[in-house]
From TrEMBL:
Residues 1-55, 92-114 are annotated as: Disordered. Gene3D superfamilies: alpha/beta hydrolase (3.40.50.1820). This is DUF676 domain-containing protein. InterPro entries: AB_hydrolase_fold, DUF676_lipase-like, Lipase-like. Residues 10-22, 41-55 have a biased composition (Low complexity). Residues 117-342 form the DUF676 domain. SUPFAM superfamilies: alpha/beta-Hydrolases. Signal peptide: none annotated.
Length: 343
């Protein structure tokens, strides 16, 4: 590299040669482009027209190479260089925004729906961990077969395979947006029910907390706490604008999977249960922290603990109360993943 060589940064962050003399082939190329062969691109641009104001910090690379500066040499404007790179970066989309987009996409697809156009009762079926909408295909067909013209079944598509590792909250946001899209497409719907398996039950409980719309004459939570499960809550709210009818879960770990033989294949051995709680997030991501109650977002209690009541995250218990029927099925034996105590 000759001693006279220098680099400089123009207002557009383009490193070019600052030597006043250019090789013949460069002079020919410059003349073809309508530029002065003696000045590099951008040199004639006035300082006032630069994208960024000219800062005072500059760096001459020749200083580090032991060369003496020459009159007219340009310096590498370090601050300007860094600003140009930083200006190209766009903030990544938030997890909530991505969940919203995925829910909208899933709710607009119709290939996993079945039922007559005249049906006014929406049944949403939700899969569990690493599952998919295909898990409910047979059950959806049986619903429509036994209740023709009465139910319209939508098998949830927003949470499948590895997306079920994203955590109960993000999965719940996706499901909530998916349900909104289905309701918007089918204006004749009046009632809604949910049927969920395993982890899908927790996701659905979170989703209805986001979809819940309280009634104007709804009684206070203190009064509704005194009502038995058989009694209907007067003035109960709605879910996505529809009348809530049935909320059914099957083998859902409502209490999580931590301790007390909630994960049967660990046989209640304390050291195994402690190890599972500390390593679950390596296997199933944020969902593992939620299931084992090890999440502490912003110093808040674990998500499953927050979901046992109405809170800033959602009206979880009010939404659950609004359903006329709430049923939780559990496997007494032969279920090595979800113990009957938690489901």
């Amino acid at each position: 590299m000759p001693a006279s060589s220098r680099f400089y940064t123009s207002a557009t962050c383009s490193p070019v040669s600052a030597s006043s003399r250019s090789p013949p082939h460069r002079r020919r190329y410059a003349s073809l482009m309508g530029q002065s062969p003696s000045a590099p691109p951008g040199r004639n641009r006035s300082r006032s027209s630069s994208r960024w104001p000219q800062p005072g910090l500059g760096l001459d690379l020749g200083v580090f190479l032991g060369r003496k500066p020459r009159p007219g040499d340009e310096r590498l404007d370090l601050a300007n260089w860094m600003r140009c790179f930083l200006s190209q970066r766009l903030p990544p989309p938030t997890a909530e925004a991505e969940a919203d987009a995925e829910g909208k996409a899933a709710g607009s697809r119709e290939e996993d729906e079945i039922g007559g156009e005249e049906a006014d009762h929406l049944v949403v079926m939700v899969n569990g961990l690493y599952g998919s909408s295909a898990d409910w295909k047979f059950a959806a067909e049986q619903f429509v077969k036994r209740l023709p013209g009465k139910v319209f079944v939508h098998r949830s598509q927003s949470n499948h395979s590895k997306l079920t590792y994203d955590g109960v909250d993000l999965m719940g946001e996706r499901l909530a947006e998916e349900v909104r899209q289905v309701v918007q497409r089918r204006r004749n719907l009046k009632k809604i029910s949910f049927v969920a398996h395993s982890l899908g039950g927790l996701v659905t409980r979170y989703a209805i907390g986001k979809l819940y719309e309280p009634a104007t004459n709804e009684t206070s939570s203190l009064d509704t706490d005194k009502l038995s499960d058989e009694q209907e809550t007067p003035g109960a709210g709605k879910i996505a604008g529809l009348e809530p009818i049935n909320f059914i879960t099957s083998a859902t770990p409502h209490l999580g999977s931590r301790w007390n033989k909630q994960l049967p294949f660990l046989f209640g051995v304390p050291v195994l249960e402690r190890t599972a709680a500390g390593t679950a997030h390596f296997i199933v991501g944020r969902t593992g922290t939620h299931l084992f109650l090890t999440d502490r977002d912003d110093g808040k209690p674990p998500l499953l603990v927050r979901m046992v009541e109405d809170c800033d995250d959602g009206k979880f218990m009010s939404a659950l109360r609004s359903f006329k029927r709430r049923v939780a099925y559990a496997n007494v034996t032969y279920d090595h993943i979800v113990g009957w105590r938690t489901s």
